[in-house]
Amino acid sequence: MASEPLVVGVDFGTLSGRAVVVRVRDGAELGTAVHEYRHGVLDRALPDGRPLPPDWALQVPQDYVDVLKNAVPAAVAAAGADPADVIGIGTDFTACTMVPVKADGTPLNELPEFAGEPHAYVKLWKHHAAQGQADRINALAERRGESWLPRYGGLISSEWEFAKGLQLLEEAPAVYAAMDHWVEAADWIVWQLSGTYSRNACTAGYKGIYQDGYPSPEFLKELNPDFAGFVADKLDHPLGRLGDKAGTLTAEAAAWTGLPEGIAVAVGNVDAHVTAPAARAVEPGQMVAIMGTSTCHVMNGDVLREVPGMCGVVEGGIVPGLWGYESGQSGVGDIFAWFVDHGVPPEYHERARERGISVHELLTELAAEQRIGEHGLIALDWHSGNRSVLVDHELSGLVIGQTLATRAEDTYRALLEATAYGTRVIIDSYTDAGVPVTELVIAGGLVKNALLMQIYADVLDMPLSVIGSEQGPALGSAMHAAVAAGAYPDIRAAAGAMGSVERGVYQPIPGNVEVYERLFVEYQELHDHFGRGANEVMHRLKALRRAAKGEK
Q1: Which of 85, 194, 393, 463 is the most exposed, having the fewest neighbouring CB atoms within 10 Å of its CB?
Q2: By the 8 A CB rule, do 78 and 32 touch?
Q3: In angstroms, rounded to a whole number, what is the distance separating the alpha carbons of residues 343 and 246?
Q4: What is the pLDDT of residues 54-100, one digit of tens each?
Q5: What SS3 class is residue 169?
Q6: Tell me: the pLDDT tens digits for 229-256?
Q7: Phi, psi (5° rounding) for residue 475?
Q8: For residue 439, which of 538, 505, 371 has the smallest C-alpha distance?
Q9: Can you give the residue ranges of the Carbohydrate kinase FGGY N-terminal domain (predicted)?
């Protein structure tokens, strides 16, 4: 069989990296491989055992390079492909995930003097310990009437570049001084592949407060006099447009991956945003929910609106010529996993083992047997804080209605429903702001849970479409590699040829919709009571927890 051009997409997730080999002509996924990060998420201690405070989440950058060395060759082998047919490689990353580096790209944690310093490591997207800095940024921006603040729903998240950078300056000034670049991991991995530092427009816009320029030195100085030069000294760099070629594969990276030296390396991107073209969601109103450990909601619009609590709106942030909107939930699959790991009695684990299924599958089966409302519970899905629409990572989870008759499957279903309610709040915020959501496309690992999908369709009272690929972000990255290599003129053309979606797979059931409408009213009342200042108990509990652990 004659050879055809191929591209490789690599999706760097929270716990692992996944590579996929894709045929340029039609998007066929020929081979895939996964490599787990050796260090995983450092949220309790550094590799040397040094304990970490609450709300920290770090990673080791070498783990990302190991994905290139292992997953990419394994995917090519699984595809039975000739590496010589590969014309480009594209990557995507969780965001906002930040790497402090020297001028040559060396991460600071790899320097002997900083090996035991937490601030020298990668700050993962779910590092929420910079909430205090985020609060100050928001308060000052509101007081000064900064024009960029409404573009982010009125609030900047503790997950983002500036809050994390200010935390670094104030808690580890020696590390901050030694840092030459404050780099998104999405750009750092492209740097490792191409030898060229190219800052991508997506993370700059959504996570780096870039809206026709960055916040002014005067604003930064008012936050902290030593922060005035943050943009000029640590952050600013020429921006690469999505789908552009950042450079070509170096000899070293070619040796890591087994791919040909000199092929195109696409400008970096974010895992959620790169998934929209993979799901052929490139028109206004088509929202994609990438559901995994967290959920990111992205959508294109042909108008600019201020949506309360959105993560950002960026011109060309997803596809050229449209406004790209982003919102999200900080915890979804993470919440379900936490409950299974820490809230399910041993007898359930034993039953699952006897049947050869996971505890998740067992609880889903039991929950699916219930009528809506039968468990008598309402939960708030804030176990990892609230990203949208409240933008407050000091909030925490809640389950109300428990009795001595409550069982594990009851709480599990309530948590599933809570995440659906959270998405409903987000979609309602867009509709109310004049940016209607006309279609919801689901991507990510949780699409496999049919009960969860039906709950979402019923809570939202709208059909759910499903991406046609199990590797949405990796496929999207491969598509951008095809554009960078010149195989398609732009990402819209690539989406038409290489993307995949199944429309209207899950339909709302009228009777279910009616009951969930009543339950959502209860959720919304709890949401506003605990999230909008009527009761600050969650904030007080977080403060007490820090005090008990010896934090300031």
Answers
A1: 463
A2: yes
A3: 46
A4: 999 999 999 999 999 999 999 999 999 999 999 999 999 999 999 99
A5: helix
A6: 999 999 999 999 999 999 999 999 999 9
A7: -65, -45
A8: 505
A9: 7-275
CA of residue 35 relative to chain centroid, distance = 19
19 beta partners: 10, 33
Do 159 and 126 meet the contact criterion of CB atoms below 8 Å apart?
A: yes
**Global confidence as pTM:** 0.91
pLDDT in tens, 161-207: 999 999 999 999 999 999 999 999 999 999 999 999 999 999 999 99
- Render the burial of 145-154: b for 16+ CB within 10 Å, e for the rest: ebebbbbbbb
**Cα distances (Å, whole numbers) of residue 296 to 24, 104, 288, 444:** 27, 32, 8, 10
What DSSP designation does 294 have?
Answer: S
Residue (of 400, 423, 406, 248) closest to 327 by Cα position = 423
The pLDDT value given to residue 479: 98
- Report whether 126 contacts 330 (CB < 8 A): yes
- What residues have CB less than 8 Å from 246, skipping those under 6 apart? 190, 194, 196, 198, 240, 265, 266, 267, 268, 484
Residues 6+ apart with CB under 8 A from 310: 152, 153, 325, 326, 327, 388, 389, 429, 430
Asked if pLDDT for residue 509 goes beyond 70, the answer is: yes
* Residue type, position 153, single letter: G
